[in-house]
Amino acid sequence: MSQNSALPSQDAASEALPHADSISKLIEAHLTNKAKWKPSVVEEIFNNELLPSNFAINKLALLESSQYLEKYLWPQYNKKASTNHVISIGLMAVEKSRQNIAWDVFNEDPEKFSTLFQRVTQLIISDDLSITCQRVLLVFLIHCFQSFENELVRTECLKLVTIGIWNNLADDSIRERLFNEYPSLQKLWNSSNKKLNAAGNLSEIRRLEIFL
């Protein structure tokens, strides 16, 4: 194969450049320290840059380098934030997970993170959301469940499942190993078992009362 056939033509390169550089222009115009918050910027970046490119890694990397999450998305997030705002936070958190710093930005405001987590769990089952966007939120949740060492994340994840499901682990040694790694889970396990035993005893008492 000749070199000419392996490389894009000059015309093709010049046509692609504006598209490749468009997100850089948005970053320069709106994501500097002096830029004012505009909800429309989040929508423009999402609808014109991220979604059409199927959330291209190079675009996410540029946004990450500009601290899009820390300086723009997260400070302005609240319960009324748009769906695209929520998905954008999820995207950037997953991008940050590549650097093992996904949760640092959220740690200072657990209550705010809790509202975000609730929005994600609601949106992920919404019929109004495309499969592509649902997949983004699913990946975010997967990263959450893989980050149980972080108390903030663990607290929210455990609201979705009870630790009692660990009774179904095929090997008890796996459960014990996890308890050794995360002692706080051992306390949660013991507390859960006490509640289950109490509920079981109450059910037995009520069953006997029926026959007395």
For this entry, give a set of tags.
212 residues; mainly alpha; 2 domains; disordered C terminus; Aquarius_N; RNA helicase aquarius N-terminal domain-containing protein
Short description:
Residues 31-200 form the RNA helicase aquarius N-terminal domain. It contains 11 helices and no strands. It is an all-alpha fold.
Description:
The protein has two domains: 19-161; 165-210. The chain has helices at residues 3-6, 10-30, 39-50, 57-65, 68-73, 83-97, 110-123, 131-145, 151-157, 172-181, 183-211. The longest helix is centred in the C-terminal third of the chain and has 29 residues, at 183-211. The protein is built from eleven helices and no strands. The protein is mainly α and 212 residues long.
What is the element layout, followed by pairings?
Elements: H1 3-6, H2 10-30, H3 39-50, H4 57-65, H5 68-73, H6 83-97, H7 110-123, H8 131-145, H9 151-157, H10 172-181, H11 183-211
Helix pairs in contact: 4-6, 6-7, 6-8, 10-11
